[in-house]
């Protein structure tokens, strides 16, 4: 980063199916808590980036979701920019806030990610995911259109295809994917904001209902509602706050592309850029939140981030290195599998967790001595790559 940028406040709601709450209620709670954490009121904020992915499809609220959701927070009147970038909407908004602070056109910027994904008609929620890929050239993994309502997210078909490819090149087996889910729920049980924290066993995960082979129900992230918010500031902005800041070392974003001849994936490119900007290497990272919308993703992304050699994801997991108490804990929050996945809020929530980890306030899931943290957030899908990938690195 050319100028020092800090996360000065962080807050989030509990994630889960909250049919009785609207997008506004969720956003208001996260904003309130993030501002309180930063030691200031809404009057100090210069600019807001509001992340949401599917409100237009779920609730019908399109075009101005941020202005509507934040109408009664005290933030209305300042610039509010709505950000939609699939499951990476929240981390994209975070990156835009960093860019503005670096440009010096604002000193305190708020980032809010909020999503109302659950609906009384579950098929409506599942159908929204189909908007996350090219409608004219859908990926080969997308199932053909059939009569009736969808019974699952189309992205589980995508992840199933990725899982089979990964198993062929790495030697991973279904038990490895089950162990990822077991670990996620063990971590989630320590997070009061997580959607699920019930204990799982490998046999229980393998025995749960098959969604798309090799994925079972417990290997897939749930439908979730929730919001997360962050207050960012430069050094001038910190003077307006009473904060315990965490420094932003890097916030990179790339779009996916049609990969040929072994081109790097979007996550690999975003990670490479982030390490270069931050001046750190994969071996320096103490704690990670990554986008495990389905269990195989943890193993795939751990390789893409350079935590191990290609094909080494299963052994990294089996070694215990990625559990709390291990060398590089992954998803101490419970990840998307346990904490939940309210799409537009997910990227912000990852950063909320890492800010709390670096401040040492995560209780039973605290990663001792954490000084450098990384978040990876992906969104959408092309034929053989994520449509967007972001990597954020924070330091204490």
UniProtKB/TrEMBL annotation:
<feature type="domain" description="Thiolase C-terminal">
    <location>
        <begin position="264"/>
        <end position="387"/>
    </location>
</feature>
<dbReference type="InterPro" id="IPR016039">
    <property type="entry name" value="Thiolase-like"/>
</dbReference>
<keyword id="KW-0813">Transport</keyword>
<protein>
    <recommendedName>
        <fullName>propanoyl-CoA C-acyltransferase</fullName>
        <ecNumber>2.3.1.176</ecNumber>
    </recommendedName>
</protein>
<dbReference type="InterPro" id="IPR020616">
    <property type="entry name" value="Thiolase_N"/>
</dbReference>
<dbReference type="InterPro" id="IPR055140">
    <property type="entry name" value="Thiolase_C_2"/>
</dbReference>
<keyword id="KW-0808">Transferase</keyword>
<feature type="domain" description="Thiolase N-terminal">
    <location>
        <begin position="5"/>
        <end position="235"/>
    </location>
</feature>
<keyword id="KW-0446">Lipid-binding</keyword>
<dbReference type="Pfam" id="PF22691">
    <property type="entry name" value="Thiolase_C_1"/>
</dbReference>
<dbReference type="InterPro" id="IPR020613">
    <property type="entry name" value="Thiolase_CS"/>
</dbReference>
<dbReference type="Pfam" id="PF00108">
    <property type="entry name" value="Thiolase_N"/>
</dbReference>
<keyword id="KW-0445">Lipid transport</keyword>
<dbReference type="InterPro" id="IPR002155">
    <property type="entry name" value="Thiolase"/>
</dbReference>
